[in-house]
Amino acid sequence: MTEKKLAIIATKGTLDWAYPPFILASTASALGYETQVFFTFYGLQLLRKKLNLKVSPLGNPGMPMPLGMDKWFPVMGTALPGMESVMSAMMRKKMKEKGVASIEELRDLCIEADVKMIACQMTVDLFDFTPDEFIDGIEYGGAATFFEFAGESDICLYV
Amino acid sequence: MTGFDQELDASGLNCPLPILRAKKTLSSMESGKILRIIATDPGSVKDFEAFSKQTGNELLESAEDGGKYMFLMKKA
Predict the structure, then answer these.
(1) Which of A91, A110, A148, B52 is the most buried (most CB within 10 A)?
(2) Alpha-carbon separation of residue A157 from A11, A28, A47, B42 (angstroms)
(3) CATH number, domain at B24?
(4) How many CB atoms within 10 Å of residue A20?
(5) Per the domain annotation, does B1 fall within a domain?
(6) A5-158 has CATH 3.40.1260.10 classification
């Protein structure tokens, strides 16, 4: 049985967008897929050593809120200073209570599962990131390099 | 009920952790050995069926006992 290939392009850097690439990559790897994830633009935030991922309630009508807040809390309120941090902390707390793995844990599992993680060199330069800001074990490359793998993948996802 | 060689308690862990932990434990086991997995995640029932199909590790038994799910998996 030849190994199937999964290619993921991760472009977002918020807490809610961080889960899909890591969960999909780690699960696929557990199921025997050869997996590579290309982190570009805000996706680079997911590769930093010290993660401080946030989720913003502002302009996020799909976000469920406790106490039925999503029905009456004004959108302007979500733009107040500190709201982002509060919401992010609440979401993280809920995840912990429900036994959902943290991003750090999922990321470590991916590395353990031999998921190849590639940081887009262009965006690293664009945002003036330095390699020591990122975790070890990642590669640097460009779109063309990634296409080598993505072009042969059975599943290619843009997250 | 068949005996088992190793046990993995994945209680309290949610998707995708039960599968990932199972994979890790299985990779350190010899072929033919049986792993008993306990999980509380209801989604794990389907997950382990799919895991078994995709990886070729035989799912010998899948049972439920008062909210806890038990799986017996044989390393390919």
Answers:
(1) A110
(2) 11, 12, 18, 27
(3) 3.30.110.40
(4) 14
(5) no
(6) yes
Whether B48 is catalytic is no
Question: What residues in A contact B41, CB-CB < 8 Å?
Answer: 99
Answer whether B68 touches A (CB < 8 Å): no
* pLDDT surpasses 70 at B2: no
Nearest to B23 among A30, A99, A101 (CB): A30
Nearest CA in chain B to A114: B24
Tell me the pTM: 0.86
- Quick one: closest CA in B to A112, which residue? B24
Return all residues near B73 (Cβ < 8 A) that are at least 6 apart: B22, B26, B34, B35, B36, B37, B48, B52, B57, B58, B59, B60
Beta strands per DSSP E along A52-144:
116-120, 139-141
Comparing CB atoms, the residue among B14, B55, B56 nearest residue A98 is B14
- Please judge whether A31 and B55 are an interchain contact, meaning their C-beta atoms are less than 8 angstroms apart: yes
Catalytic residue among B6, B11, B13, B15: B15
Could you give the ipTM of this predicted complex? Answer: 0.71
pLDDT in tens, A48-71: 999 999 999 888 888 888 888 888
